[in-house]
Amino acid sequence: MNTQSTRADNILRCARSLIVRGGYNSFSYADISKVVGIRTASIHHHFPSKSDLVRVLVAQYREEAAAGLSQLEQAIPDPLDQLRAYLGYWERCFADMAAPFCVCALLAGEIPVLPEEVAAEVRAHFRQLADWLTGVLERGAAQGRLRLSGTARADAEMLLATTHGAMLSARAYGDATAFGAITRPLLERIAA
Amino acid sequence: MNTQSTRADNILRCARSLIVRGGYNSFSYADISKVVGIRTASIHHHFPSKSDLVRVLVAQYREEAAAGLSQLEQAIPDPLDQLRAYLGYWERCFADMAAPFCVCALLAGEIPVLPEEVAAEVRAHFRQLADWLTGVLERGAAQGRLRLSGTARADAEMLLATTHGAMLSARAYGDATAFGAITRPLLERIAA
DNA sequence: GACAGGCTCCCTACTAGTTGGTAGGTTTGG
DNA sequence: CCAAACCTACCAACTAGTAGGGAGCCTGTC
């Protein structure tokens, strides 16, 4: 296993931070070039086209998300605490200004103008996340820890939507604390 | 009052439908030119710069929204029905494929790369909408028609976030019915 | 040990097309 | 006649992407 940061990794990391600011059409190979210190032609060597770059970027993002969620599931037994940890992760992201937006939430809005391969990855992320949340809610309800207002799936979709909407609101208001202010009451209400 | 569709109106209408697809950076003067049947230079005559165009576009959108909401408030006395009408409006937009996204919700995600003047308009729209929802919830609670889970303001922000998030989910899943599936249970739960 | 071949990575140089925007002249309607 | 509206003809900067070459590095072979 190779943990040293390769050029391709640098490019992906940089592209992610750029895409998180304003989506697919808000950055160019030239922008990456300036930050990473590489010529645009060399970026094409690693990622022949922009859609390749973003497809890989989102796929990698999804893998990290999956890994993070399964690790979180292992470390934290209680379903309510798992939700808390999930939302807490994003709250910390906003506080740090590290990556104050979900890549896929941003790209979802742009789906009509996205290359099909990228759109498919975004779609898959939404399903993945909704599935995970559904599982957590099901277990929480079975254990009597959570009080659902509908089916686990329906509540999961609502939770997902509120989370993404809270990101939009935080951006719109220019207030990082808005995310927590919106999502925290969600948890209090769902706790049995 | 001049109800005939002027050139500037056509440009704005066209730009709106383009911007709704993928945000600020997803369309160009050339795109508008092709649809409206006018040269790009002539668009600059009506809107000197792109940020002017989008600022006016969002301001007009906000006016329409304000007018729509106040009209809705006049026509429908019951607060719960007002919420139903508001969400129903968007549900119909998705069904028609007419304008299946809120201009400001889309632009909110891109705020870091938006011209400041446009960002200010988007911010104002969020506040305007949150204010309206807060008012509806307050009245609904006072009349015993709605059962709030927090303050009216907090519930309004959550409702707003869920609505916007549901738009993202509908796009991500490529399923227009997803919007209603997510938002309808919201109303059932809030109804006293 | 030398050395050729091939591979990865990155470069310079270039392309065609698009971007938002300008200068200045012409048409059109009151 | 005047002004708004629209045009042609530009522009410089930027877009993603290509062609081709050179430096370094491993690997197989004599």
Q: Short description, anyone?
A:
By secondary structure, the first copy, chain A, is an all-alpha fold.
Question: Care to describe what's here?
Answer:
The structure is a homodimer of 192-residue chains. Chain A has 192 residues and is mainly α. Chain A has one domain: Tetracycline Repressor, domain 2 (Orthogonal Bundle), CATH 1.10.357. Chain A is built from nine helices and no strands. In chain A, helix 1 (7-22) crosses helix 2 and helix 4 runs parallel beside helix 7. The longest helix of chain A has 27 residues, at 116-142. The model of chain A has no long low-confidence stretch (mean pLDDT 95). At the A-B interface, helix 6, helix 7, helix 8 and helix 9 of A face helix 6, helix 7, helix 8 and helix 9 of B. The structure holds a DNA duplex (30 and 30 nucleotides).
> Beta-strand percentage of chain A?
under 5%
Structural class of the helices, strands and pairings of chain A? mainly alpha
- So, the CATH homologous superfamily of chain A? Tetracycline Repressor, domain 2
Largest interface pair? A-B, 47 and 47 residues
CATH-assigned fold name of chain A: Tetracycline Repressor, domain 2
Shape of chain A: elongated
Helix content of chain A: over 70%
Q: What is the number of beta strands of chain A?
A: 0
Protein name (chains A, B): TetR family transcriptional regulator
DNA-binding region (chains A, B): 28-47
Keywords (chains A, B): DNA-binding, Transcription, Transcription regulation
Organism (chains A, B): Azospirillum melinis
